[in-house]
Amino acid sequence: MNLEVVGLRFKPAGKILQYVADGLALHRGEKCVAESENGLEIASVVLAPRTVDLQAGQHDLKAVLRKATLQDFEQAEALGQRAKETFALCRSRIREVDLPMKLVSVDFTLDGQKAILTEFAPISVRMAKEQGMALNPSRISGVCGRLKCCLAYEMAVYKAIKDELPRIGDLYVTEEGPGRVVDITVVGEAFAVELEESGNRVFIRLPSAEERTNNCNGCSNRGYTPGHDEDTF
Question: Is the entire prediction scored with pTM above 0.70?
Answer without folding.
Answer: no
